[in-house]
Specification:
- By secondary structure, this protein is of the alpha+beta class.
- The chain is built from six helices and eleven strands.
Length: about 190
């Protein structure tokens, strides 16, 4: 279903906003179609996914059964906080390999953006594209954000450690991007 805006809406920054500072129409549409599910919890089986990576190859969580998997959700490629987080994982990548852990980053960015981000910062692990936010919703990490008083829908920076049996072993919410990899390694 396509909802057409009425004439009294203004277009600004690729967002359709109502007059008089009401909630943006795009949030209302997203809320109707993409209701945030509650975040998966420690001990639950991690929901499987099939997502394209930076090369458009399909990656499934179930392909890593029997291995520890670090799944980290982040907002956008090549933004300050997300770059710090990715580089934090990059800089400790050998430590993750020693612990026999796989790292998978997930954002709403398209594979082409992931490829550029990987090349620019020498990221050694796969980045997956959840462009329709279905997986972020399923895992409970997509919802309304408030940054400097600006409200929008987006991914909440969250990391999950999945154990060898496919269950959630640890959840990190509201992480500090530059020190996060060390924190995750300590829990593996």
């Amino acid at each position: 279903m396509i909802i057409q805006p009425e004439k009294n809406y203004l277009k600004n920054d690729n967002r359709i906003l109502e007059e008089e500072n009401k909630k943006p129409l795009h949030l209302k549409i997203i809320e109707m179609t993409n209701r945030r599910e509650s975040m998966i919890q420690i001990g639950e089986v991690a929901p499987d996914f099939s997502l394209p990576n930076q090369d458009t190859s399909i990656v499934r969580l179930s392909d890593y059964q029997g291995k520890k998997v670090v799944v980290y959700f982040y907002l956008n490629d090549d933004t300050p906080g997300c770059t710090k987080e990715a580089c934090s994982f990059r800089d400790r990548y050998q430590d993750f390999l020693k612990k026999e852990a796989v790292i998978l980053g997930i954002s709403c960015d398209l594979p082409k953006s992931h490829q550029s981000f990987i090349e620019k910062f020498n990221i050694p692990f796969q980045l997956l594209s959840d462009s329709d936010t279905k997986i972020a919703n399923k895992w409970g990490v997509y919802g309304e954000k408030n940054v400097y008083g600006r409200k929008f829908m987006g991914i909440h920076r969250t990391t999950f450690i999945i154990d060898e049996h496919g269950k959630v072993a640890h959840v990190f919410k509201k992480v500090a991007p530059s020190t996060h990899a060390r924190e995750v390694l300590n829990k593996l």
